[in-house]
Amino acid sequence: MPPRWTLDKKILLGVSGGIAAYKTPELVRTWIKSGAEVEIILTDTAARLVSPLTLSTLSKRRAWRDEDLTSDEHGWTIPHITLGGWADALVVAPCTANVLRMAASGDSGTLLGAAMLACHAPKIFFPAMNSHMWANPAAKANAQLLRERGCRVIDPDSGALACGYEGEGRLPSIETIVDETWFSLCPLRDLEGKKVLVTAGPTREYIDPVRFISNPSSGRMGYALASEARYRGGDVTLVSGPVSLRAPSGVKIINVTTAREMLDACMAELAGADLIIKAAAVGDYRAVNYSGQKIKRASGPMTLELAQNDDIAHAIGRAKSPGQILVGFAAETENIRENALKKIEAKRLDMVVANNVSDGAGFGSPFSDVEIHFAGGRGLSPVYVSGDKWEAASGILDAAVTLFRMK
Q1: What distances in angstroms separate CA 183 from CA 41, 125, 228, 305, one per listed residue?
Q2: Can 163 be counted among the known catalytic residues?
Q3: pLDDT for 204-219, tens place per residue?
Q4: Torsion angle, alpha carbons of 36, 39, 41, 46, to 10
Q5: Of 119, 163, 186, 266, which one is the catalytic site residue?
Q6: Average pLDDT for 377-402
Q7: What superfamily in CATH does domain 4-185 come from?
Q8: CATH code for the structural domain at 195-288+304-406
Protein backbone atom coordinates (compact mmCIF):
# COMPACT_ATOMS: atom_id res chain seq x y z
CA MET A 1 0.00 0.00 0.00
CA PRO A 2 1.63 3.30 -1.09
CA PRO A 3 1.60 6.59 0.84
CA ARG A 4 -1.61 8.63 0.55
CA TRP A 5 0.09 11.57 -1.14
CA THR A 6 0.52 9.49 -4.33
CA LEU A 7 -3.19 10.00 -5.05
CA ASP A 8 -3.87 12.13 -8.15
CA LYS A 9 -0.18 12.57 -9.01
CA LYS A 10 0.25 13.11 -12.75
CA ILE A 11 2.98 11.04 -14.38
CA LEU A 12 4.05 11.40 -18.00
CA LEU A 13 5.73 8.16 -19.09
CA GLY A 14 8.05 8.17 -22.09
CA VAL A 15 8.64 4.71 -23.55
CA SER A 16 11.59 4.37 -25.91
CA GLY A 17 12.45 1.47 -28.18
CA GLY A 18 14.36 -0.90 -25.96
CA ILE A 19 13.33 -4.52 -25.49
CA ALA A 20 12.53 -3.69 -21.84
CA ALA A 21 9.50 -1.77 -23.11
CA TYR A 22 7.53 -4.98 -22.59
CA LYS A 23 7.66 -4.28 -18.84
CA THR A 24 5.84 -0.94 -19.06
CA PRO A 25 2.26 -2.28 -18.83
CA GLU A 26 3.01 -3.56 -15.32
CA LEU A 27 4.61 -0.21 -14.45
CA VAL A 28 1.53 1.69 -15.61
CA ARG A 29 -0.73 -0.70 -13.75
CA THR A 30 1.23 -0.18 -10.51
CA TRP A 31 1.03 3.60 -10.75
CA ILE A 32 -2.70 3.49 -11.51
CA LYS A 33 -3.32 1.21 -8.51
CA SER A 34 -1.51 3.81 -6.37
CA GLY A 35 -4.03 6.46 -7.43
CA ALA A 36 -1.82 8.28 -9.95
CA GLU A 37 -2.86 9.46 -13.40
CA VAL A 38 -0.62 8.37 -16.29
CA GLU A 39 -0.16 9.74 -19.80
CA ILE A 40 2.10 7.80 -22.17
CA ILE A 41 4.26 8.77 -25.14
CA LEU A 42 5.76 5.97 -27.24
CA THR A 43 8.50 6.34 -29.80
CA ASP A 44 7.80 4.60 -33.12
CA THR A 45 10.18 1.78 -32.21
CA ALA A 46 8.59 1.36 -28.77
CA ALA A 47 5.18 0.98 -30.42
CA ARG A 48 6.54 -2.09 -32.24
CA LEU A 49 7.64 -3.67 -28.95
CA VAL A 50 4.64 -2.97 -26.71
CA SER A 51 1.06 -2.48 -27.84
CA PRO A 52 -0.25 1.10 -27.63
CA LEU A 53 -3.71 -0.42 -27.17
CA THR A 54 -2.53 -2.30 -24.07
CA LEU A 55 -1.07 0.85 -22.55
CA SER A 56 -4.09 3.00 -23.37
CA THR A 57 -6.39 0.36 -21.90
CA LEU A 58 -4.44 0.33 -18.64
CA SER A 59 -4.09 4.11 -18.39
CA LYS A 60 -7.61 4.80 -19.76
CA ARG A 61 -6.01 7.50 -21.90
CA ARG A 62 -4.68 7.80 -25.42
CA ALA A 63 -1.20 6.38 -26.00
CA TRP A 64 0.57 9.20 -27.84
CA ARG A 65 2.82 8.58 -30.86
CA ASP A 66 5.38 10.57 -32.85
CA GLU A 67 2.75 11.19 -35.53
CA ASP A 68 0.84 13.33 -33.02
CA LEU A 69 3.64 15.91 -32.97
CA THR A 70 2.66 17.37 -36.33
CA SER A 71 -0.93 16.15 -36.62
CA ASP A 72 -3.64 18.80 -37.00
CA GLU A 73 -6.16 16.45 -35.36
CA HIS A 74 -5.62 18.04 -31.94
CA GLY A 75 -5.57 21.65 -33.08
CA TRP A 76 -4.74 24.16 -30.39
CA THR A 77 -3.97 21.53 -27.75
CA ILE A 78 -0.37 21.10 -29.06
CA PRO A 79 0.29 17.68 -27.46
CA HIS A 80 3.91 18.15 -26.41
CA ILE A 81 3.15 21.46 -24.67
CA THR A 82 -0.06 20.21 -23.09
CA LEU A 83 1.47 16.96 -21.85
CA GLY A 84 4.63 18.64 -20.59
CA GLY A 85 2.64 21.22 -18.67
CA TRP A 86 0.21 18.63 -17.27
CA ALA A 87 2.83 16.37 -15.68
CA ASP A 88 4.00 16.41 -12.06
CA ALA A 89 6.88 14.19 -13.16
CA LEU A 90 8.26 12.89 -16.45
CA VAL A 91 9.65 9.34 -16.35
CA VAL A 92 11.47 7.79 -19.31
CA ALA A 93 11.59 3.99 -18.94
CA PRO A 94 13.21 2.33 -20.68
CA CYS A 95 15.52 5.07 -21.93
CA THR A 96 17.65 4.01 -24.89
CA ALA A 97 21.02 5.53 -25.72
CA ASN A 98 19.38 7.53 -28.51
CA VAL A 99 16.68 9.02 -26.29
CA LEU A 100 19.32 9.79 -23.65
CA ARG A 101 21.19 11.73 -26.36
CA MET A 102 17.99 13.49 -27.46
CA ALA A 103 17.26 14.60 -23.91
CA ALA A 104 20.82 15.87 -23.35
CA SER A 105 20.95 17.75 -26.65
CA GLY A 106 17.41 19.16 -26.53
CA ASP A 107 16.42 17.37 -29.75
CA SER A 108 12.72 18.12 -30.31
CA GLY A 109 12.28 16.19 -33.56
CA THR A 110 9.95 13.61 -31.95
CA LEU A 111 6.92 13.98 -29.70
CA LEU A 112 8.86 12.55 -26.74
CA GLY A 113 11.84 14.82 -27.42
CA ALA A 114 9.61 17.90 -27.68
CA ALA A 115 7.70 16.97 -24.50
CA MET A 116 10.97 16.47 -22.59
CA LEU A 117 12.05 19.93 -23.70
CA ALA A 118 8.71 21.55 -22.78
CA CYS A 119 8.26 19.81 -19.41
CA HIS A 120 9.41 21.74 -16.33
CA ALA A 121 8.46 19.00 -13.86
CA PRO A 122 11.08 16.66 -12.33
CA LYS A 123 12.54 14.31 -14.94
CA ILE A 124 13.74 10.78 -14.17
CA PHE A 125 15.56 8.65 -16.74
CA PHE A 126 16.04 4.88 -16.51
CA PRO A 127 18.66 3.92 -19.12
CA ALA A 128 18.46 0.35 -20.46
CA MET A 129 20.81 -0.81 -23.19
CA ASN A 130 23.69 -3.13 -24.06
CA SER A 131 26.40 -3.00 -21.41
CA HIS A 132 29.03 -1.80 -23.92
CA MET A 133 26.73 1.03 -25.01
CA TRP A 134 26.15 2.12 -21.41
CA ALA A 135 29.90 2.02 -20.74
CA ASN A 136 30.62 4.20 -23.78
CA PRO A 137 31.93 7.67 -22.81
CA ALA A 138 29.28 9.32 -25.00
CA ALA A 139 26.42 7.70 -23.08
CA LYS A 140 28.10 8.48 -19.76
CA ALA A 141 28.59 12.11 -20.80
CA ASN A 142 24.93 12.48 -21.77
CA ALA A 143 23.84 11.01 -18.43
CA GLN A 144 26.17 13.33 -16.53
CA LEU A 145 24.98 16.38 -18.49
CA LEU A 146 21.37 15.59 -17.60
CA ARG A 147 22.31 15.21 -13.93
CA GLU A 148 24.09 18.55 -13.97
CA ARG A 149 20.89 20.10 -15.31
CA GLY A 150 18.88 18.78 -12.38
CA CYS A 151 17.49 15.59 -13.90
CA ARG A 152 17.78 12.24 -12.17
CA VAL A 153 19.42 9.43 -14.15
CA ILE A 154 19.17 6.07 -12.39
CA ASP A 155 21.97 3.65 -13.23
CA PRO A 156 20.76 0.40 -14.81
CA ASP A 157 20.94 -2.94 -13.03
CA SER A 158 23.46 -5.65 -13.79
CA GLY A 159 22.59 -9.10 -15.07
CA ALA A 160 21.73 -11.07 -18.19
CA LEU A 161 20.70 -8.83 -21.09
CA ALA A 162 18.32 -9.67 -23.93
CA CYS A 163 21.17 -9.31 -26.42
CA GLY A 164 23.00 -12.20 -24.77
CA TYR A 165 25.56 -10.09 -22.93
CA GLU A 166 26.03 -10.08 -19.16
CA GLY A 167 26.64 -6.78 -17.42
CA GLU A 168 25.23 -3.41 -16.46
CA GLY A 169 22.35 -2.37 -18.71
CA ARG A 170 19.12 -3.94 -17.42
CA LEU A 171 16.09 -1.81 -16.72
CA PRO A 172 15.66 -1.63 -12.91
CA SER A 173 12.73 -3.46 -11.36
CA ILE A 174 9.23 -2.02 -11.49
CA GLU A 175 9.41 -1.52 -7.72
CA THR A 176 12.61 0.52 -8.06
CA ILE A 177 11.11 2.70 -10.81
CA VAL A 178 8.04 3.32 -8.66
CA ASP A 179 10.17 4.10 -5.57
CA GLU A 180 12.29 6.58 -7.50
CA THR A 181 9.18 8.22 -8.93
CA TRP A 182 7.65 8.68 -5.47
CA PHE A 183 10.97 10.07 -4.23
CA SER A 184 10.82 12.78 -6.90
CA LEU A 185 7.15 13.51 -6.18
CA CYS A 186 7.20 13.51 -2.37
CA PRO A 187 5.72 16.84 -1.18
CA LEU A 188 8.02 16.99 1.87
CA ARG A 189 11.80 17.33 2.11
CA ASP A 190 11.97 17.90 5.87
CA LEU A 191 14.61 15.21 6.43
CA GLU A 192 17.03 16.58 3.82
CA GLY A 193 20.55 16.36 5.18
CA LYS A 194 19.53 14.04 8.03
CA LYS A 195 20.93 10.54 8.53
CA VAL A 196 18.19 8.15 9.64
CA LEU A 197 18.77 4.73 11.20
CA VAL A 198 15.75 2.40 11.30
CA THR A 199 15.45 -1.13 12.65
CA ALA A 200 12.73 -3.47 11.42
CA GLY A 201 11.35 -6.99 11.58
CA PRO A 202 11.87 -9.77 14.12
CA THR A 203 15.05 -11.35 15.35
CA ARG A 204 15.68 -15.09 15.57
CA GLU A 205 17.50 -16.93 18.32
CA TYR A 206 18.39 -20.44 17.20
CA ILE A 207 18.06 -23.40 19.54
CA ASP A 208 19.50 -25.84 17.01
CA PRO A 209 20.14 -25.64 13.24
CA VAL A 210 16.41 -25.89 12.39
CA ARG A 211 14.56 -24.33 15.35
CA PHE A 212 14.52 -20.83 16.70
CA ILE A 213 12.71 -18.45 19.07
CA SER A 214 11.10 -15.50 17.31
CA ASN A 215 7.87 -13.52 16.94
CA PRO A 216 5.40 -12.81 14.10
CA SER A 217 6.61 -9.30 13.26
CA SER A 218 6.29 -8.71 9.50
CA GLY A 219 8.64 -5.71 9.40
CA ARG A 220 6.06 -3.61 7.52
CA MET A 221 6.19 -0.73 9.99
CA GLY A 222 9.97 -0.38 9.88
CA TYR A 223 10.06 -0.69 6.11
CA ALA A 224 7.33 1.94 5.71
CA LEU A 225 9.32 4.26 7.99
CA ALA A 226 12.52 3.69 6.01
CA SER A 227 10.76 4.32 2.69
CA GLU A 228 8.93 7.43 3.89
CA ALA A 229 12.11 8.84 5.48
CA ARG A 230 13.96 8.35 2.20
CA TYR A 231 11.12 9.98 0.23
CA ARG A 232 11.42 12.97 2.55
CA GLY A 233 15.10 13.33 1.69
CA GLY A 234 16.75 11.38 4.50
CA ASP A 235 19.93 9.35 4.09
CA VAL A 236 18.49 6.09 5.41
CA THR A 237 20.09 2.93 6.78
CA LEU A 238 17.75 0.03 7.52
CA VAL A 239 18.88 -2.74 9.88
CA SER A 240 16.48 -5.58 9.14
CA GLY A 241 15.75 -8.91 10.74
CA PRO A 242 14.48 -11.80 8.57
CA VAL A 243 11.44 -10.62 6.59
CA SER A 244 9.87 -11.34 3.20
CA LEU A 245 9.76 -7.67 2.17
CA ARG A 246 11.63 -5.99 -0.68
CA ALA A 247 14.36 -3.58 0.36
CA PRO A 248 13.30 0.01 -0.43
CA SER A 249 15.18 1.66 -3.28
CA GLY A 250 17.82 4.18 -2.26
CA VAL A 251 18.11 2.78 1.28
CA LYS A 252 21.25 1.13 2.68
CA ILE A 253 20.16 -2.20 4.14
CA ILE A 254 22.00 -4.32 6.69
CA ASN A 255 20.49 -7.79 7.09
CA VAL A 256 20.83 -9.44 10.48
CA THR A 257 19.35 -12.45 12.22
CA THR A 258 19.98 -12.33 15.96
CA ALA A 259 19.54 -9.63 18.59
CA ARG A 260 23.31 -9.49 19.06
CA GLU A 261 23.86 -8.93 15.34
CA MET A 262 21.24 -6.16 15.36
CA LEU A 263 22.88 -4.50 18.37
CA ASP A 264 26.32 -4.63 16.75
CA ALA A 265 24.98 -3.17 13.48
CA CYS A 266 23.16 -0.36 15.29
CA MET A 267 26.16 0.60 17.39
CA ALA A 268 28.38 0.62 14.29
CA GLU A 269 25.98 3.04 12.54
CA LEU A 270 25.05 5.14 15.59
CA ALA A 271 27.72 7.84 15.47
CA GLY A 272 26.58 9.27 12.15
CA ALA A 273 22.82 9.08 12.74
CA ASP A 274 20.61 12.10 13.48
CA LEU A 275 17.42 10.07 13.98
CA ILE A 276 17.27 6.50 15.29
CA ILE A 277 13.93 4.67 15.07
CA LYS A 278 13.83 1.32 16.87
CA ALA A 279 10.87 -0.33 15.13
CA ALA A 280 12.20 -3.90 15.25
CA ALA A 281 10.57 -6.53 17.46
CA VAL A 282 13.75 -7.78 19.11
CA GLY A 283 13.65 -11.06 20.99
CA ASP A 284 14.19 -10.65 24.72
CA TYR A 285 15.73 -14.10 25.24
CA ARG A 286 18.10 -16.58 23.63
CA ALA A 287 18.94 -20.20 24.36
CA VAL A 288 21.75 -20.64 26.86
CA ASN A 289 22.97 -23.82 25.17
CA TYR A 290 22.83 -23.97 21.39
CA SER A 291 22.87 -27.50 19.94
CA GLY A 292 25.00 -27.93 16.85
CA GLN A 293 22.86 -30.88 15.82
CA LYS A 294 19.10 -31.14 15.52
CA ILE A 295 17.59 -31.97 18.90
CA LYS A 296 15.72 -35.27 18.69
CA ARG A 297 12.28 -35.78 20.17
CA ALA A 298 12.49 -37.27 23.66
CA SER A 299 9.89 -39.38 25.46
CA GLY A 300 9.34 -36.81 28.22
CA PRO A 301 9.24 -33.02 28.55
CA MET A 302 12.23 -30.90 27.58
CA THR A 303 13.52 -27.95 29.58
CA LEU A 304 14.90 -24.98 27.63
CA GLU A 305 17.10 -22.59 29.59
CA LEU A 306 17.01 -18.99 28.34
CA ALA A 307 19.22 -15.97 28.92
CA GLN A 308 18.31 -12.33 28.44
CA ASN A 309 19.46 -10.52 25.30
CA ASP A 310 20.88 -7.02 25.55
CA ASP A 311 18.26 -4.25 25.33
CA ILE A 312 19.22 -2.43 22.11
CA ALA A 313 17.13 0.70 22.75
CA HIS A 314 18.57 0.93 26.25
CA ALA A 315 22.13 0.62 24.91
CA ILE A 316 21.55 3.31 22.29
CA GLY A 317 19.87 5.56 24.85
CA ARG A 318 22.99 5.41 27.02
CA ALA A 319 25.37 5.95 24.09
CA LYS A 320 23.58 8.62 22.02
CA SER A 321 24.79 12.20 21.90
CA PRO A 322 22.63 15.20 22.90
CA GLY A 323 21.84 16.12 19.30
CA GLN A 324 20.47 12.69 18.35
CA ILE A 325 16.80 11.76 18.53
CA LEU A 326 15.91 8.24 19.64
CA VAL A 327 12.45 6.82 18.96
CA GLY A 328 11.36 3.60 20.60
CA PHE A 329 8.35 1.33 20.14
CA ALA A 330 6.17 -0.33 22.76
CA ALA A 331 3.67 -3.07 21.88
CA GLU A 332 1.02 -2.81 24.60
CA THR A 333 -2.36 -4.36 25.41
CA GLU A 334 -3.23 -2.29 28.48
CA ASN A 335 -2.20 0.86 30.37
CA ILE A 336 -0.84 2.21 27.10
CA ARG A 337 0.17 5.66 28.29
CA GLU A 338 1.65 4.54 31.61
CA ASN A 339 3.77 1.82 30.04
CA ALA A 340 4.95 4.14 27.26
CA LEU A 341 6.09 6.83 29.70
CA LYS A 342 7.95 4.25 31.78
CA LYS A 343 9.82 3.11 28.68
CA ILE A 344 10.79 6.70 27.81
CA GLU A 345 12.40 7.15 31.22
CA ALA A 346 14.00 3.71 31.45
CA LYS A 347 15.61 3.84 27.99
CA ARG A 348 16.24 7.60 27.66
CA LEU A 349 14.03 7.88 24.61
CA ASP A 350 13.05 11.20 23.06
CA MET A 351 9.71 9.74 22.08
CA VAL A 352 7.96 6.41 22.11
CA VAL A 353 5.40 4.92 19.75
CA ALA A 354 2.97 2.83 21.76
CA ASN A 355 1.28 0.30 19.51
CA ASN A 356 -2.07 -0.94 20.80
CA VAL A 357 -2.00 -4.62 19.86
CA SER A 358 -5.19 -5.60 21.70
CA ASP A 359 -7.58 -4.93 18.80
CA GLY A 360 -6.00 -6.77 15.85
CA ALA A 361 -3.72 -3.91 14.83
CA GLY A 362 -0.56 -5.67 15.98
CA PHE A 363 2.00 -8.05 14.47
CA GLY A 364 1.31 -8.98 10.87
CA SER A 365 -1.52 -6.49 10.44
CA PRO A 366 -1.42 -3.88 7.65
CA PHE A 367 -2.91 -1.38 10.11
CA SER A 368 -1.57 0.42 13.17
CA ASP A 369 -3.22 2.12 16.10
CA VAL A 370 -0.48 4.14 17.80
CA GLU A 371 -0.01 6.72 20.51
CA ILE A 372 3.11 8.89 20.26
CA HIS A 373 4.40 10.17 23.59
CA PHE A 374 7.31 12.53 24.17
CA ALA A 375 9.96 12.81 26.85
CA GLY A 376 9.03 15.09 29.70
CA GLY A 377 9.79 18.80 29.63
CA ARG A 378 9.10 19.29 25.93
CA GLY A 379 5.55 20.58 26.35
CA LEU A 380 4.22 18.38 23.57
CA SER A 381 0.86 16.65 23.77
CA PRO A 382 0.52 12.99 22.76
CA VAL A 383 -0.23 12.31 19.09
CA TYR A 384 -2.69 9.60 18.05
CA VAL A 385 -2.54 7.93 14.62
CA SER A 386 -4.83 5.18 13.38
CA GLY A 387 -4.65 3.81 9.86
CA ASP A 388 -2.38 1.84 7.58
CA LYS A 389 1.38 1.53 8.04
CA TRP A 390 2.09 4.49 5.74
CA GLU A 391 -0.21 6.78 7.73
CA ALA A 392 1.47 5.66 10.94
CA ALA A 393 4.94 6.17 9.43
CA SER A 394 4.00 9.66 8.27
CA GLY A 395 2.70 10.61 11.71
CA ILE A 396 5.80 9.23 13.45
CA LEU A 397 8.15 11.15 11.15
CA ASP A 398 6.08 14.32 11.55
CA ALA A 399 6.56 14.02 15.31
CA ALA A 400 10.32 13.42 14.92
CA VAL A 401 10.65 16.48 12.68
CA THR A 402 8.88 18.53 15.37
CA LEU A 403 11.60 17.47 17.82
CA PHE A 404 14.34 18.47 15.38
CA ARG A 405 12.78 21.92 15.04
CA MET A 406 12.71 22.33 18.81
CA LYS A 407 16.41 21.53 19.28
Answers
A1: 22, 13, 9, 47
A2: yes
A3: 999 999 999 999 999 9
A4: 50
A5: 163
A6: 90
A7: Flavin prenyltransferase-like (3.40.50.1950)
A8: 3.40.50.10300
